[in-house]
Amino acid sequence: MKNLVKLGVAALMTIITMTINAQNKESEKSILWEVTGNGLSKPSYIAGTFHIMCSKDFEMKSKVVKALENSENFVMEINYTDPKEMTALQGMFKSDKKLSDQLSPNEANELDKILASYGTNLKNMDSSSSQALYALISMKAVPCPQTEIKSYEIELLQTALKSKKNIGGLEKVEDQLTSINTAYNLKDVIQQLKMGKEYEILLQGMISAFKKEDLQTVYDLFKNDKFMNSKQEKAMLTDRNKNWAEKMPEMMKKESSFFAVGGAHLMGNNGIIQLLRSKGYSVKPISSL
User: What's the pTM value of the predicted model, to 2 decimals?
Assistant: First the structure.
């Protein structure tokens, strides 16, 4: 009888623990997070963004706009208002070495066939960089014309400029290029191009989760080992997150800052939220402002 009672208590405690964990996970759902403590005189904010989506899926929540209004600085992954950075960004998609010169005849022929499904061919893309090829994946995965595509960062940037906020960036184009090159060489990119249809399904899943403010699911989908191995995750997420988390304290210390970065960068043990918490900051999800 005593054993039955013990088993009953253990089962009850397990159910309670599971319920609390589920509630905690639910309460942690938000695209907007407030950073306080550790000597900050004013709160700062982190918004998880989605780089591109169709206008029908786009929504700028009022709490995000209010948080931006309450901040003095607007900080993106890259400062799109810096002419030097924009020049570097344009150069990122061009290459001095032709793609066909980096491939065997059979590989070049295969790439040409793959590119046909993206509405182009190797001849048109031959002077492009592997980053330009990689960009084709996301553009094709978005199920609407380019005229109907919205960028969360650009929409926020336009609001920040109207309010005359200070604009900054967490990394340079050169830094981002180094990360991409470390993660994906040309042959890696070609393998990714082959999964075009699967990327369409992936993107829709990520957008659905983002609209529910479920950044944990966005993160889990983004780092799915079908699309990203451990080396690529380290280059694209972990290393960049750590670099950003080292720069953010100084920006927050000087003035209240609003950071807008891809939603997948926030979650996980090496995500921005956990990294800032480990530095002594309080980082909590915001449901409304």
Answer: 0.87
